[in-house]
Amino acid sequence: MAHAPRLDEEDGAGVGLERVTNVAEGGAVGKDRLPVCAGAREQLPVADEGTGERPPGQRHDPPAALGAVAEFEGFAERSVQTVDQGQTRFGKLNAHVSSGHVVRVARNLRSHRLGEENRATKRERKLLVAGIEQWGGAVRMLELAGPRAPRAGEVLIEVKAAGVGNWDDIARAGNWDLGRTAPVALGVEAAGVVAAVGSAVETWSAGDEVLTHPLPLVDQGTWAPWLIARAADLARKPTAVSWTVAGAFPVPALTAVQALNDALGVGRGDQLLVNGAGGVTGGLAVSLAVLRGARVLATAGPSSRERVLAAGAATVVDYHDADWPEQIIEATGGRGVDGAVNAARGGEAGALRAVRDDGRLATITSDPPELERGIASRSVYVRPDATQLEFAAAELGAGRLEFAVGARFPLAEAGAALVRAVAGRGGAVALEM
Fold it and tell me: What is the pLDDT along the chain (433 residues), one digit of tens a residue?
């Protein structure tokens, strides 16, 4: 089984992934609306055969559409008394037509009507998502089955925004096990409104605003209007945070928190290097480390320098300089940093040089260096953690974290959004529903 991907980003400088050339936009697929019998002209929604619940998005009330059929059936029953005379509201009936035949006609009409409604409902329950038909395929709009009712411990979320990152290209290529088979909607982070909850869900209710990193997927990915997720993977969305920002926040936030908490145990007074602080995840690592009381030294490109300083870094050096590790060591008085987060592909060896003897290194890229001088190293694979996400979201809502969305796209342009995310320039990328 493939591990969750590790992220790497720094001003989009390569991010170590080949540029996506086969990611294409797909056209929207229209929905058929079947004609209905006279007297019942609205589309009739039908409850799911397995759950008895109506799927989301149905706007009409079953009794309204069934009324015309029921009225005819009732009329047919009443017409039994006048059939022998051959008179009904529909005009003359042949004398040999029995009263039972009239009733059967009405009931057959009702049965036919319900069958038509069931077929129409199944068509309407198709869901337009952005995803792939097979692993390694191009991103396009797909028509998949609509969301089922949430099961025990699950919630149904109306997605407002979803994030797009270079990790989604790893998933597209089939190198990250999402827990689903293709065809599938891509996307592993989102923000939205709880629409329904399954049994045994007590923490959340309809109307709650949430964000999530819902892996492994229990149904489809987040690049879709609806998402089923485990209630245990949700965090509350702060009111002050926009939907677009919240949708792109979970994966980089959890990665940064897990690098600092789980891999390095960063605390007050530590000297920490963040290599690749100009990227989305690196910028969050700077802000979060400063909140912990660490002294942060960072690398970034010239265009990101002021932003990284504003996030709280004490020193920022240009990672283009060949001697940047020596500049970091000099800034620590020659001792070296206690720990380092490497968020730039190809920067692992340089980060290691800047760490003191018996220090710690956490890398979110896929190629950890050969260790030396007693330095402990750990690779960080992002994983769902509602407590960590809720903490980070609260700090974001309070304005204490450096995080910005650099590009936003509609769902139908998910392919272009992924190309932008892999290029890695100018902040996070989000899809807006």
Answer: 444 554 444 443 333 333 333 333 333 333 333 333 333 333 333 344 344 444 444 333 333 333 443 444 444 444 434 333 444 333 333 434 444 544 444 444 444 444 444 444 443 468 999 999 999 999 999 999 999 999 999 999 999 999 999 999 999 999 999 999 999 999 999 999 999 999 999 999 999 999 999 999 999 999 999 999 999 999 999 999 999 999 999 999 999 999 999 999 999 999 999 999 999 999 999 999 999 999 999 999 999 999 999 999 999 999 999 999 999 999 999 999 999 999 998 889 999 999 999 999 999 987 777 888 999 999 999 999 999 999 999 999 999 998 999 999 999 999 999 999 999 878 999 999 9
Of 106, 124, 142, at which residue does a domain stop?
124
- pTM of the predicted structure, to 2 decimals: 0.73
One domain for residues 157 and 208 = yes
Structural domain span for residue 95: 62-124
Sorted by sequence, the CB contacts under 8 Å of residue 88 that are 6+ apart come out as 79, 82, 102
Polymer length in residues for the chain? 433
120 and 34 Cβ atoms separated by less than 8 Å:
yes
Is the peptide bond prior to 183 cis by the omega test (within 30 degrees of 0)?
Answer: yes
Residues 150 and 216 grouped into a single domain: yes
Number of domains in the chain: 3
Same domain for 261 and 154: no
Contacts 24+ apart (CB under 8 A), 49-56: 50/148, 50/149, 51/148, 51/149, 53/149, 53/196, 55/121, 55/125, 55/146, 55/147, 55/149, 56/146, 56/147, 56/156, 56/158, 56/195, 56/196, 56/226
- Cα–Cα distance list, 151 to 52, 194, 199, 228, 381 (Å): 13, 14, 7, 9, 28
Query: What phi and psi values does residue 228 have, to the nearest 5 degrees?
Result: -100, 130
Q: Is residue 40 part of a domain?
A: no
Query: Is 31 a member of any domain?
Result: no
